[in-house]
Specification:
heterotrimer; A alpha+beta (about 800); B alpha+beta (about 290); C alpha+beta (about 160); A: about 800 residues; alpha+beta; Aldehyde Oxidoreductase, domain 3; Aldehyde Oxidoreductase, domain 4; 3 domains; seven-stranded mixed sheet; five-stranded mixed sheet; 18 helices; B: about 290 residues; Uridine Diphospho-n-acetylenolpyruvylglucosamine Reductase, domain 2; Uridine Diphospho-n-acetylenolpyruvylglucosamine Reductase, domain 3; Enolase-like, domain 1; five-stranded antiparallel sheet; four-stranded antiparallel sheet; about 25% strand
Chain lengths: ~800, ~290, ~160
Amino acid sequence: MSRSTRTGPKPAVQVCLHPGLQEPAEKDYAVIGKSKPKIDGREKVTGQARYTADLKFPNMLYGKILTSPHAHARILSIDTSEAEKIPGVKAVITHKDVPALKYGISPARWDENIFCIDTVKFVGDKVAAVACLDEETCYKALKAIKVEYEALPAVLDPLHAMDEDAPRIHPEYPRNINTEIHQNFGDVEEAFRKAAYVRTDLFIGNRAYQAPMEPHTATSIWQDGKLTVYSSTQSPHYFQYYIAREFGLPMGDVRVIKTYVGGGFGGKLEPTGLEFAGAVLARLTGRPVKMFYDRAEMFAHNRGRHRQYMKLTTGVDADGRILGVHADFIMDGGAYTSLGIATAYYAGAMLTLTYDFINYRFDMHRVYTNLPACGAQRGHGAPQPRYAFEAHLDNIAKELGIDPLELRLRNARRPNTITPNEFVVNSCEMAACLEQARKASGWADKKGKLPAGRGIGVAAGSFVSGAGYPIYRTDLPHSAAMIKVAEDGTAATLYTGAVDIGQGSDTILCQMAAEAMGYTYEQMKIVAADTETTPHDLGAYASRQTLMSGAAVKQAGEEVRKQLLEMAGEMLNLPSERLNVRSGKIFAKDDPAVALSFEAAARTFFVKKGPLVGRGAYTPPRLGGKFKGAPVGTSPAYSFAAQVSEVEIDEETGEVAVLDVWDVHDCGQVINPALLHAQVHGALYMGMGESIWEEVRFDAKGKILNPTLGEYRIPTALDMPRMHSILVPSYEPAAPWGVKEVGEGATIPTMGCYRNAIFDAMGVSVNSLPLTAEKVWAALREKRKAGGEDVWDPMACECFLK
Amino acid sequence: MYLPDFDYYTPESLTEATGLLVRLGPSAMVLAGGTDILVKMKNGLLAPSALVSLKNLHELRRIRWEDDRGLVIGALATHNEISNSAAAQERFLSLSEAAHKLANNQVRNRGTIGGNLVNAIPSADLPPILIALGAYVTLAGPDGGRTVQVENFFTGVSSCAIEPGREILTEVVIPPQETTGSTYIKFGLRRSGALAVVGVAAAVTMDGDTVRDARICLGAVYKTPTRAVQAEQVIIGKRWTGELLEQAGRTAVGCCLPISDIRGSAEYRRDLVRVLTRRALKRAITEGHV
Amino acid sequence: MQAIADKQGIKRYLINLTVNGDEYSPVVKGNTLLVNLLRDELDLTGTKKGCELGDCGSCTVLMDDKPVDSCLVLALEADGCEIVTIEGVAQNGELDRLQRSFIDNAAIQCGYCTPGMILSAKALLARNPHPTEPEVREAIAGNLCRCTGYVNIVKAVLEAAEVKE
């Protein structure tokens, strides 16, 4: 396997090659690669699927959390006496009643308490909680809790959070700097000196929110000192780990169960006050306690997209080849760390993947503000820098007179290369994606030839297929799986800790299990995401499960297959090497007339040897360099995507209508084409929402102005363009069957793609997200004024009203 | 979320309904579709002691044409019923189209024209076209009924001429008229489930290319829907041209006083008034349907 | 309507309604919402709560054949009405053509919007058996989905329209 000979630090790692995972010459899969119907489809279309809020338990209470109305304040006193008197209120708790141990999902920064002790740090911070007989009483009880606050000056502007005189939000973090990063690869200054053209641009992102349709819910139940928590979670493991830690319990005494989850998108990866306070209320009352957030509380809890202020400087040669990049960013982290350290590193780390350049400098400050905490949202730190860089590239292309798509082709990453920050890229079809996008969109016939008001734009992106390292330091495998074949072989159950949050992992893992065993998908059953019954898995994030959980499932299936064929060999009096099994039928490779059913062999196995079980586990190889932050961005494999969009602008109102979007993806082997394209649709849709409409807005006191789905506008069915989802063939050697991710990859290029289409249509650059009609309108007016046009001033007309 | 407690009544007649309101006092409210009231109650903005539901007053649902009065729309007609009504589509298609632009399908199946008027938010979608078409409302009270021109019905943000605790809006009437074309343009930030950032309704009566009469009403740009009388004066009596309509648009900006909020700045809204007034007039003039 | 006051003086009312063809006579308070009556009293949890303000459509049910947001309907207002929830769509265990089409077209991801979507679509096909794509989009514009981008949902509804009932 040849590696790029461009200069850069020598890789300290090897490409990971799974034994036996050469790309097959002929791919004749029985189960994977097929659009099998979702295994939970029937439950969901009939209303039988029970999400956490649908679960009822005997003697159950309802719980809610009292939150702060202030962005920054000292708690002087809390009086719960009136609340306790209300009929139906069973318990009221404050910081006195819960462990004071600070927690957080990022081990380097445990900065949250279950309830604030001294100060509240954002509007929505947790102060107390109640458990009551019904929902209504909870709201009334919360109102009756009297909290005396002393308002403190608040930090609401991230650009001033680091000022010397800014109020300090966390005592341990001077100048409100939560994370500071300085990475330097190669020699950027030298690159700029050699460059034919150097350009600096500044872009601003938007504070967005995952807004899953299902609100957070958690129900806690104690039995004999052991805790069970049903939660709307993306990772029962991380929840189990952190809940056990908070209460000083062994992991084995904490059971976390995920039922059905109505979307996560990164916001449900860390335990919330609902799990922690719920556990305490359940213990105090001796009854199950169901806690939930309503929609406004969801917005306040947040853990959504960081807003980034992004300064990019790039030097290119006369042909537009990138020689060096300096990314200097500030991100608004809100009041707590959440997953923000990783986000801060990802923001810079991912910039080196898409295009091939050696000299790279990344400076980042993630600051605390007295606003809801930001965390990981689909694309985790990468989408806004992608928007900025793609816009920046189009500015460069325009300056140099090079077609933007051609410019990208010249810089596209190639397979079997290493990035300056030491990410090993095996498969990579970035160029093919761009070529295919060019063809499918009719780029050549449209670029520069569209009627007035129409434009076409391109952007590219890439993402990890799972993170090389877990969120906290552990030597546990990242995924494990078990398969048990039923005693008579008529069914097989896959046990996996992997978490289906709607993306379809239950379905594709069953397909993978069946493929590996030589069984049928239709006979598969699955038990998933219950820390007591299913083997460990880190959960659904960083687009890891197809590759990582899939690798464990494949191994488990192959173990079943091996034992099965050995038994079949005994039964047929043939060596097992001469046998194969496919779609539930065992046959001799050289004589298909010699046949035996999977069921018959499985049954005989059980009779003679006991349960037919397969086990698997997956740990990524040791990846990445040795510099600070090197682990973030490492992955066994990377996906690549190119997007082209065609827009139509109303030149007078600035309204942007996106007509068509073409997404071309390199995501390796496809397990389920229908589900894969569905993921592209969804990822693109979220990227689109953040591009044009979505923004969380605050008043002057740090309170969210639009905590509703009416004013935080996510696109409706009428707002969508025609979407064309296309794949280019590729095969990833470091992955089971050559798979890669797709769940986040299509979110990443979208914002830059639309900005570039607007730039093409109108010659105006919108340098901040979202790309609202008003911003386009304002930019158009500025352009006309700059061109000497007499632009009518709506503020200067005669007013007839009093 | 939860609703505060309240007593609930379902009168069988209008007389019973107004009698109840008088008896219960001003803290009682009328309940039609509930899509505005229940939201406000959940948000803690309203806490009526009683809700008087009009659900049994079936005669208030009817939409029909009466030759002497015009299009008579019962206050309880839902937005979808108005949108789908053959009578409305035949007589005043622009009203039917405007009703279709509200909120989304589910809300339109419950929300009523009476509720939309009495709720009286500045960005309401029905008032501008009703005002452009010269509509009036009938209010029933314990002492009888009265009519109020929709143009005079709104008295401020979320307030209207109805006497709380006494009167019930029973019908909206659009009189027969010589209008040759009308339209309502709603500018929202997405294509469904969006409040109007700016709304412009225009109704014209043309004699060939000459504007005999014009009525323009702006929504979402003042504390109440507002007639752009000065803009109307620009085109009345003249032959229309693109430039004339642009002039009318610019003049219309003087008839509004929009605020800046999370949906748009005052400056943007003003320029939208200019553009959309011009476009609404052009559509009303050239597309021919009322 | 007859009311009986409880110990706190809060009035409770007996109402009669039909849900999925079954008759019920629950006792409700004035402030009981239809969505909570369905989910909590009748244990029909297929109807979901996503926003409680009529913005998302997760709570969509059919009320006398019309899709409405049940979070904005008082249980009292549903007195005398026929309600259909997602549990009432399949008949005797046989999936409706819409349900089959959703499965066949991969129109379900997390599934939270699915009950509301199917009911909006079902009402659409009842009043407009051969809708155009814009008409489908209009009918489901009040059902927000965060997972699918609506692509396969629209496809599923159009395909179901082709199937004879």
